[in-house]
Amino acid sequence: MKKFLFFLILIILMAGTVLYFGWIRVPENSYGVFFSTITGYDKNVFETGNFYFKWQKLIPKNSKTYIINDVFRKRDISIRGNLPSGELYSKVLQGNPDFSYSVTASVTYSISKDFVMEYVTKNGTNAIFDQTGIDNFFIETDKKIQSILKNYIETSFLANLEGSQNNAGIELKTLAPEALKEKIMPNVSSIVISDLAVINSYFPDINLYRIASKQYMEILSDKKKILLEEELKTASRDADLAKRFETLQKYGELLNKYPILLEYFKINPNGDILKESEKLR
Question: How far is Cα 224 from Cα 233, in angstroms, rounded to an integer?
């Protein structure tokens, strides 16, 4: 009985030792990528809170677990700008109304596990696993989200210009988080958004923007007409000058050929003969 207990304890200790040295621990708010010189990169990205055991770890200097820290971030992303041509439209209305807008959205997102695996497979582990690489990743991602939201807001506003005055701007005033997520996710496949909320938003009067846009286009059309008329007048003057120059050129050729005509011009400055010859032509 004592021998049985001894062997049982020994087996438990050995199993515990094996489990301990083969166990992969992933810190909170992190991902892990396992690599072995025997089997290469593991196809799965390890997450916090799960138990992972790899027999390759039992072989000294055979494997390494790369840890990506701080993969979850919460950001307040602000978008500010003027509606398309808003500054120009503002000048045509009395009081120069403000056609700027602003939106602040709180976004919680993480690096996609699929992106991590794809990146590591193509580029190795050096560039993304240090803190500088992680920070740069989130900075660039914030810029992409800002650009997508800005484009969505302005495109939606212009689309609403064609709607009736009763429902214009409703979609923008509500700014449903799910609609925003649907715009972001297909264009930023490297992240997973876990939470998105609009903290505050401001949009100008869409009907006033419509009126300003119409007036500006009318003014622009009038200016084009004036410019066209000026161009036609200029072209007419240029045609007259060209005709006069051609006449002077002919006079010059005639005087070169018949210098005696110079004496005639002294007697008859009005050049009646030349005028008659032009009429005959």
Answer: 14
